[in-house]
Amino acid sequence: MDAVTNPLKSHDTKAESETATDSLLRSSVYEELRSRMITGKIVPGVSLSTRSLALEMGVSQMPVRDALSRLAAEGAVQIRSKRRIEVSPMTSERLDDILDSRLLLEPEAAVYALPNITPAIFKTLKEIDASLDQAMEDGDVVRYMEYNFRFHFTIYRANNRPVLNRLIESLWLQFGPFMRVVNGRYGTANLVDQHRMAMDAIQSADADALRDAIAADLRDGMGLLIRDTFSKA
User: Fold this and answer.
1) Confidence at residue 131, expressed as pLDDT on a 0 to 100 scale
2) Which residue of 18, 61, 101, 146 is 20 to 30 Å from 128, comparing CA positions?
3) Contacts of 175 (CB under 8 A, 6+ apart)
4) Domain spanning 7-87 has what CATH number?
5) What are the tens digits of pLDDT across the range 46-72?
């Protein structure tokens, strides 16, 4: 007797496949927009259009709307109307809160990672830092922001603590657009690079020195942002 194909089962399988594809697309669009904000490719004061973003990314407007709604829930953007979506405004209180939270989480994330930083990871860090130095020399703010993010998270992700690292990413998401503006205003030549201290600490397996190096790096960068944004207030 010939096998009979169940049409209902075939339909269910197709529906499940389409749902999985749709979910993957939504996640991909969200992660792309999230990355753009973290690295300062989306800046304050510029309205975001779901239509233009969808055209640029080659997708429909639905996954873009979904991604922007998720970013709004994280406090990264404000949806004022269907046609007016902007980076959430920064206040001195919010900026202080972000810095305090970063100082609590990031130095410890690096220390957790220290035992897991292999020679291969350390080599990657050296390559990233060299690219970052070149971006600073070239005055390329976008590349500087990208390599700075990669440097920090190459360290943090070695700690195998995804929940902690995602929390840290959510903080970068909130200050990234503003840091891009400040770095662009001051120029990369005037930025302080504390990464050498961090790499020396990693090489010597010195947890306290690594904690101090990461904290110093955060204070330098966020301090510049605080002074530039609110010193005249």
Assistant:
1) 95
2) 101
3) 90, 95, 98, 222, 225
4) 1.10.10.10
5) 888 888 999 999 999 999 999 999 999
Spatial separation of the C-alpha atoms in residues 43 and 93, rounded to whole Å: 20
pTM: 0.83
Domain 92-230 sits in CATH 3.50.50.60: no
| Cβ burial, residue 63 (10 Å; 0-12/13-18/19+) | buried
Query: To the nearest 10°, the Cα dihedral for 204, 214, 115, 125?
Result: -80
* Distance (Å) of CA 31 to CA 20, 38, 222: 16, 10, 24
Which residue is listed with tokens 């070149």? 134
DSSP 166-205: HHHHHHHHHHHHHHHHHHHHH-GGG----HHHHHHHHHTT
Domain ranges of the chain: 7-87, 92-230
